[in-house]
Amino acid sequence: MIVRNEAANLPRCLESVQGVVDEIVLLDTGSTDSTLAIAEAFGAKIAHFPWNQDFAEARNVALEQVTGDWVLVLDADEALAAGVIPIVQQAMQQDNVLVINLIRQEIGAAQSPYSLVSRLFRRHSQIRFSRPYHALIDDSVAEILQQEPHWQIVNCPEVAILHYGYEPGTIASRDKLQRAKAAMEQFWTAHPDDPYVCSKLGALYVQMDDWQRGIELLERGLATAEAPVLYELHYHLGIAYSRLSEFERAEQHYRAAIAQPILECLKLGAYNNLGNLLKTRGDLNAALATYQTCIRLDAAFAQGHYNLGLTLKSMGQLEAAITHYQTAIQLNPRYAEAYQNLGVAWLKLGRVPESLDAFRQAIALHQEDQPAEAERLRQGLQSMGLPV
After folding, report:
1. Could you tell me the end-to-end alpha-carbon distance of the chain, in angstroms, rounded to an integer?
2. What is the DSSP letter of 52?
3. 277: which of 10, 149, 195, 246 is 20 to 30 A away, CA to CA?
């Protein structure tokens, strides 16, 4: 791992691999907090590297310190899922496996809650990280497979890495987005037809509301991409066209994303966004079926239960809607919108005490992050004569 000032996250990460790994190699790029003391307490082998805005170079310096047969790569805001350990250990016993792709769960992500990352691999002299921002081993692995075709790449079927970087308070700042943009643009200038950088940079442009450049880059990547990058390109094109209210084109891209031959759980974002599009268009039966697919793929997907509740409420099925709102709240106790819509459903059923409890919870949660929304809801209830 490479770190800098990660004292808040590092204990959780290193505790997750205690008793599992034979050595911890930590490359520090200039910590000024207690990161190094924490690493030393866990017995880490510590190396130092002056940060030069190149994640791949830093990863390669860290890789040079490794002595084990297999390499697991984690960031400080990640943790290894305990339940997956026997599964990956069994996969590592296969003599012809070079890389084990791991499912990473994006805790708190508003969009796609799962991604597939090449973070567990056999230590091979030709495996190196490339790309200065989204550093990965995939380019070097592709070259190895050309020369040594007996190697296999396998996917671990269970969630292996828990990523906490999407929790409230950790979302990227505008300044961080600008730094990412600069790094990716520099790489893209030298590799203008690389579908992976087209996907990542195009998605970043869309995130920063630069619609035209984002769409142009994403569509450029479609020409040469294969799954899973093809999924990402279609998925982000769906987002872009949805935000531009070009719903027919957005639906085409979401359906193209869903059609890709990748693990089903990785398609959850496309299914959920397609459901939102169908619901907005008034096709409630199709939206209902799409959201049901979401919770079939992941019963713990709080947003899927919430969206099911909204759809059922629109169909007049209030009690069923309440069940899904309550499930969403159990999965995410800080789900202000779920509390708010639960209050509406209880009120429609004439259950005023339950409704007021839900509305008060919604107001309290909104007050922390969206005080204007909390005040709007409070005034709306007061205008109806409801005591909040």
Report:
1. 49
2. -
3. 195
Q: Estimate the crossing angle of helix 229-243 against helix 247-258, to 10 degrees.
A: 160
C-beta neighbour count of 122 within 10 angstroms = 17
Q: Which of 64, 21, 77 is nearest to 44 (CA)?
A: 21
Residue with tokens 């109806």: 384
Q: At what angle do helices 284-297 and 302-314 cross, to 10 degrees?
A: 160
Q: Which residues contact 203 (CB under 8 A, 6 or more apart)?
A: 214, 218, 232, 236, 239
Q: Do 198 and 218 touch, CB atoms closer than 8 A?
A: yes
pTM: 0.88
Cβ proximity of 286 and 310 under 8 Å? no
What per-residue confidence (pLDDT) applies to 148?
A: 97
SS3 of residue 317 by DSSP = coil
> 58: buried, middle or exposed (CB in 10 Å: 19+, 13-18, 0-12)?
buried
DSSP element (H, E) containing 12? helix 10-17
| Per-residue pLDDT at 175 | 64
Distance, in Å, from the CA atom of 102 to the CA atom of 98, rounded to the nearest integer, reads: 13
Residue pLDDT, tens place only, 110-142: 677 899 999 999 999 999 999 888 899 999 999
Please give the structure tokens belonging to residue 58: 């830093």
* Widest Cα–Cα separation across the chain: 75
Please calculate the CA angle 113-142-260 and round it to the nearest 5 degrees: 40
Residue 102 to residue 89: CA distance in whole angstroms: 13
Domains of the chain: 2-163 (3.90.550.10), 174-383 (1.25.40.10)
Alpha carbons 344 and 356: distance in angstroms, whole number? 9
Tell me the Ramachandran region of residue 245: left when phi exceeds 0, alpha when psi lies from -120 to 50, beta otherwise: left
* DSSP letter assigned to residue 173: P
What is d(CA 277, CA 335) in angstroms, rounded to the nearest whole number?
21
